[in-house]
Amino acid sequence: MKRVRINAGKVGLVFKNGDYVRVITKGTYWLWFNQHVVTYDLGKQFAAPIALEILLQDKTLEAMLKVIEVKDSEIMLQYENGIFKNVLTAGRYQFWNGFIKYDFVVVDLSKIFITENIDKALFKKAELSKFIRIFEVAAFEKAVLMVDDVYVKTLTGGTYRFWQNDKTIKVVKADLRQLQLEIAGQELLTKDKAAIRINFYTQYKVTDIERALLENKDYEKQLYIAMQLVLRAYVGTYTLDELLERKDDIATAVFEDAQKAVLKLGVTVLNTGIRDVILTGEMKDIMNQVLVAQKKAQANTITRREETASTRSLLNTAKLMEDNQMLFKLKEMEYVEKIADKIGEITVSGNGGMVSQLKEIFSVNK
Asked: Which among 201, 198, 254 has a CA at the least distance from the CA of 229?
């Protein structure tokens, strides 16, 4: 015989000629030479050396073991003395009773929502995170949850986790803040067939997320087209001059019609406006010519007005001089002075009568 000792925290399975005989716990035992003992640590998971069904026929051993079975569509969270230890996937697991307090949380992976009582801090652990899908919805967003392309519910801002399985999950988000849509370089024809390009803007908000995301595909593209059509309808009813003069009125009219046109898109138009009206190269040349002609006409008008005023002034002066000989003489002297200022040299010939000759030069005989 041989002596075998089992220490505290250990357990032994006795085999005789390869067949299981019994379980032994702490203490000293005498065994036959054709028997041997396989020792196990009570603080560790038990791995059966032979078929578990054979071992469980021993009621003593069966009472000492906790057998856990995890189905194919499940996982199980293992806790030891209240502390998370591991995630068990499909299979059979055995643990020793009594030495360590084991707790298990069963998770049904066939559903998507996490309804089990699990501390959120565990979701970041590598053992568990691979079984979870995470979606983020910002505070300024809302989202629709689609499971296998079927609407389930609307989500507000937050972090959402779902179990990983063969179901398809989509979280389609929409920004609830005030947004701006730019319609840049839109080429249009006015009522008088002038080709122009318009830069137009629209400020809007998503107010009905279910309608915007579920009843419409690419609601932003549809909003862009709707604004294009409304803008085109109004521009085509105005001449170029009217368009340039009444940009604000047209923007207001477009705003009112756009509000009705986009209701089915789940958005509300807050404001619209024409940023720029850009003329094409040919139209720009024509407008420049018109502007030059207008300015020339204005200049001619001013010139004619000044000429008329000058002529009227001369006429008045002439009438005064006709009635007043002294005034006529003063005017004569004024012009003689002006002429004298421009003469650099005067040549006088003859004997003596220099004064008389000067008088004759600068005098006017009447």
From this structure: 254
- The two tokens of residue 212 are 């915007």
Region of residue 325 (phi > 0: left; psi between -120 and 50: alpha; otherwise: beta): alpha
Q: How many CB atoms lie within 10 A of CB 199?
A: 15
Tell me the whole-structure pTM to 2 decimals: 0.66
Buried b (16+ CB within 10 A) or exposed e, 66-77: eebebeeeebbb
> What whole-number distance in Å separates Cα of residue 302 and Cα of residue 269?
50
d(CA 332, CA 362) in angstroms, rounded, equals 9
State the Rg of the chain over Cα: 53
Tokens of 84: 């998370």
CA distance 366 to 360: 12
CB atoms within 10 A of CB 156: 11
Q: Report phi then psi at 129, rounded to 5.
A: -60, -30
In tens digits, what is the pLDDT along the chain, a chain of 366 residues?
A: 889 999 999 999 999 998 999 999 999 999 988 999 999 999 999 999 999 999 999 999 999 999 999 999 999 999 999 999 999 999 999 999 988 999 999 999 999 999 999 999 999 999 999 999 999 999 999 999 999 999 999 999 999 999 999 999 999 999 999 999 988 877 777 777 777 788 888 999 999 999 999 999 899 999 999 888 888 888 878 787 777 777 777 788 888 888 888 889 999 999 888 887 777 656 555 555 655 566 566 767 777 777 777 777 767 776 766 666 666 666 666 666 666 676 666 565 655 555 455 556 555 544
Q: Are 23 and 13 in contact (CB under 8 A)?
A: yes
Please give the Cα distance from 256 to 46 (Å, whole number): 76
Q: Specify burial of residue 203 (Cβ count, 10 A radius: 0-12, 13-18, 19+).
A: middle
Strand-pairing partners, residue 72, are none
Using an 8 Å Cβ cutoff, are 173 and 137 in contact? Answer: yes
